From TrEMBL:
Protein name: Carbohydrate ABC transporter permease
ABC transmembrane type-1 domain boundaries: 85-276
Alphabetically ordered keywords of this record: Cell membrane, Membrane, Transmembrane, Transmembrane helix, Transport
Compartment(s) of residence: Cell membrane
Transmembrane stretches, start-end: 20-45, 89-108, 120-145, 157-176, 197-219, 260-280
Amino acid sequence: MSELLAPPRRVNRTRQLRSLRNGVGTWILVALFLIFALGPLYWMLVQALQPPGFRYTYPPELFPSQPTLQSFVTVWETRPILLWLRNTLVMALCSAALTIVFAAWGAYAMSRWTRRGVGIAAYFTLATQMMPAIVLMIPIFTAFVNVGLVGDLRGLVIANFIFSLPVATWMLKSIFDTVPESLDEAARVDGCTRLGVLFRIVLPVAAPGVIATTVFAFISAWNEYLFARLIINASGDWVASMGIASFFGEFSTPWPEVMAASIILALPPVVLFLAFQRYFVAGLGGATK
């Protein structure tokens, strides 16, 4: 009897060992990913907390032996951090709002109309992202000078809106494709217009994807530097990326202050992503199950 039961026991033991190896391998991969993703952020914090005399010690200290908040105090007292945060927040929110409104119209058209011209326009929209932004600096600057948008946050809002729109449109299109067209037809039978179907039916059903696209547009505008440097002149209109760049001098750079300011200015998008991460994951997975 014991001989008959031996093979199943060996099989079960083999399965347990395989399951254990798979679990350990998974945790190792997760740990490596966390080190890769959070390592730079942790090193920024270490450098911001290091006293000036310990910054160039070798080997470098992974845990500050004498941590201090002096870098944060110096940045807060000597730099207009709140002004940079306000300008960046207003610019990013306005850019994200414009992006989501116009991207929703374009994405709904590309999702519901399958004519040849619509498909060509859709691929042409995506193809605009293949052109480097630096190639368009002179044409955009010339156009913005002619309409009086240089030196104004409104110009930066429009520039970020223009460059976020194609990707946001394709993101929303893939999400709208998962919304059954039967919902549109039912709403049309009840007397709803096309715009009514979009704003009353499709957008609420695809809310996770809409939130994910909005977060993408917001973070993209928050991190942008090239067009901010091109369009904004007055220091009173500087955004976060320009504020960070102002720390770099010709002969020296206060790295602890740079790291402290970077941590402060990175908090809003991080908090926004953490607050809406479940919608972000759901949106990338599709609007409906």
